[in-house]
Amino acid sequence: MKIQNPREVYGRTLVEMGRENPKIVVLEADLGRSTMTCYFEQAFPERFFEMGIAEANMTSFAAGLSLTGKIPFTNSFAVFAAGRAYDQIRQGVCIPALNVRIIGSSAGLSDFGDGSTHQSVEDVAIMRAIPNMTVLVPADANETRTMTRAMADYRGPVYMRITRNDQPDVMPEDEPFVAGKPHLIRQGKDVVAFANGQMVSVALAAAEVLAEEEISLRVVNVSSMKPVDEAALVSLAEGMKGIVTVEEHSLIGGLGSLIAEVMRGRNVPQKSIGIADRFGQSAHNYDDLLEAYGLTPAHVAAAVRQLAR
Amino acid sequence: MATRDVKELERIARMIRADIVQMIGVGQKGHLGGSCSIADVVTALYFSKMRHHPANPTWPERDRFLLSKGHAALVQYAALAECGYFPKEELKNVKRCGSMLQGHPDLRSTPGVEANTGSLGQGLSIACGIAAGLRIDGLTSRVYCVIGDGELAEGQIWEASMAAAAFKLDNLVTILDRNKLQAMGRIVDRFDTNPLHDKWRAFGWHVVEVNGHDMAAILETLDQVDQVKGKPKMIIAHTIKGAGISFAENRVEFHNSSLDAAQYEAACTQLGAESVPPVERTNN
Description:
Distance between the termini of chain A: 31 Å
Oligomer: heterodimer
CATH superfamily of chain B: Thiamin diphosphate (ThDP)-binding fold, Pyr/PP domains
Radius of gyration of chain B: 18 Å
Largest sheet of chain A: 7 strands, mixed
Strand order of the largest sheet of chain A: 3-2-4-5-7-6-12
Strand order of the largest sheet of chain B: 1-2-3-7-6
Number of strands of chain A: 14
CATH architecture of chain B: 3-Layer(aba) Sandwich
CATH topology of the largest domain in chain A: Rossmann fold
CATH class of the largest domain in chain A: Alpha Beta
CATH class of chain B: Alpha Beta
Helix content of chain A: 25-40%
Number of strands of chain B: 7
Structural class of chain A: alpha/beta
């Protein structure tokens, strides 16, 4: 399986888009070598805005740029992009439904060393709750690229969270982005795993382990958290003994909540794997955090075994 | 529409204040004080200084007006109606459920409104972004943004002020409605943000001060700042909260409060307005 880095691919994709579309502008809050907007800065300095470490102003400034017909991408770590600038996103961007793209980088626990201040466990919940907002959690670099490219023409505000880490490809290279569409990644007949972001790979690894035990796990990538194609999700859960949701996010307001909302009244047992109402913390590597927060293939497999019984 | 006739502009400003009073009516809350303090500046902009076409509100080359202190929306609605952006009849529907005139400016609801403002501190940042976008397009349109002096407590104002200077946004003119009162009292007593002139100059702005109720001086100042290149411009407009309505002037109680029937009549009389019956509303 090919390994790529989503933020690297995001940075290169912005340059491609900048070449094709003079309306693309990029705003950065002094993290350009982490978010990889440094490539756009080199290529199009006149359409790049170093906003300093001032996420609130960056977000409202982007609203202003969009009001002159530009397609602004704001960039910071997810925790600041969605958290520090929440009111600016709500008031100036989402109420009038402007074409501002808010990119939350180093999302989830992926900034493992920096600890709770820099790890976003609730960004998806916050962004989902805002009317008019689209919320995307790409599973790999390929999907990061197709989603980013789709944002050139997409109407209304978008929040996309992307990880810091290298990722194995799980999505095809050129599958066009369709808002709301879940993607069947691995066929299975006993239990369905709804996952997004890096957790799609984790669910796939669990499926490999389970296959040896003759438990068949279907894996679905729910990268479009809002809007969602509810009928498609329901149909992907049809005939399953249970549902496991897997997310690198708080269990409150994220994918586990979404699936419970969609499946309400359908009597399919659900187990939710995610971060149990707590903040992140520092670790020497990302895997230590996945272990500490119960986000490994072994945790997924254990939940599936219970459901498959 | 554009006129240099000071007497005529003063007449329009009185009419706009009368519109504000009539929108508030009797027994209903409304931001009277902060709408009236900036009425002369708003009149000078919409009826003299700004290039705009009410019949074509999205004309790309227009000058933009943003009311960062969005709670004073009544003054902008009055000006837009008097300019012809929408029928004056609409004013009586202000804040009614489903109305095109929301409690704070909403660009999707009201022709002529450029941004959603009212969460204080944000309008100036949006104005900066518009100014930067216009410059990318090579347009010479100017952006006028009115901020309040109570609003200066918002940290984002200072983020925006640094950004405007860093990007040398000389197509941005900010007018500070220096009425010296915030909702809970005198700014010097509640949360003193002085000194203002020195602060804005230190943040890289060209700063001038003007009597915000002297129409000739306002027009002259708006022209004068056009000559300054390479910096954003700050016009500190010294104003009186509730200006034009004797019993409301400098009175913090009229920040957002209602008028009784006698006050309503008195205000209409003072503004030389036909004392039309106040708009009837069933509740708040």
